[in-house]
Write a structure and sequence with these properties.
The chain has about 80 residues and is an alpha+beta fold. It contains 1 helix and 7 strands. It has one helix spanning about 1-20; strands spanning about 25-30, 35-40, 40-45, 50, 55-60, 65-70, 75. It has a 4-stranded antiparallel sheet, with no helix packed on it. A 3-stranded antiparallel sheet has the order 3-2-5, with no helix packed on it.
Length: about 80
């Protein structure tokens, strides 16, 4: 019973932590190898992907991306 309670609390804390991460932008385009690392791991980025506070973007030598920020600004990410 104690292990089940610990597991439930851990899952709830993970969900609360993920929900607290605010969206900061959206990928407008991504060409080549563009990846984002967040608490869930690392994944390839495609158009329309949400970028959240605390995410790390990485662009390989063949990559380029443009992020539209929630304040209307744009961020170009290149090697």
């Amino acid at each position: 019973m104690r292990h089940a309670l610990t597991l439930i609390v851990s899952v709830l804390l993970m969900l609360a932590s993920a929900a607290a991460r605010a969206e900061i932008g959206t990928v407008q385009f991504a060409i080549g190898d563009v990846r984002v690392t967040d608490p869930r791991g690392t994944r390839a980025v495609a158009k329309g992907a949400q970028i959240n506070e605390g995410d790390t973007l990485a662009v390989a030598a063949n990559g380029s991306a443009q992020i539209k920020m929630v304040d209307g600004g744009f961020l170009a990410v290149r090697p």
